[in-house]
Amino acid sequence: MSNWNPRHSPAITALIADDEPAMRQQLRSRLQEVWPTLEIVAEAANGVEAVELANTHQPHIVFLDIRMPGMSGIEAARLLFQRCHLVFVTAYDQYAIEAFEQGALDYLLKPVGGERLKTTCARLQQRVEQQPSDLTVQLGALLAQHSSAPKRDYLRWIQAVVGQNLRMISTREVLYFQADEKYTRVRTAQGEVLIRKTLKELADELDPDEFWRIHRSTLVRVDAIDSVTRDLRGRQMVKVHGSSEALEVSRGNTHLFQQM
Question: Please, what are the domains in the chain?
Answer without folding.
Answer: 13-145 (3.40.50.2300), 157-257 (2.40.50.1020)
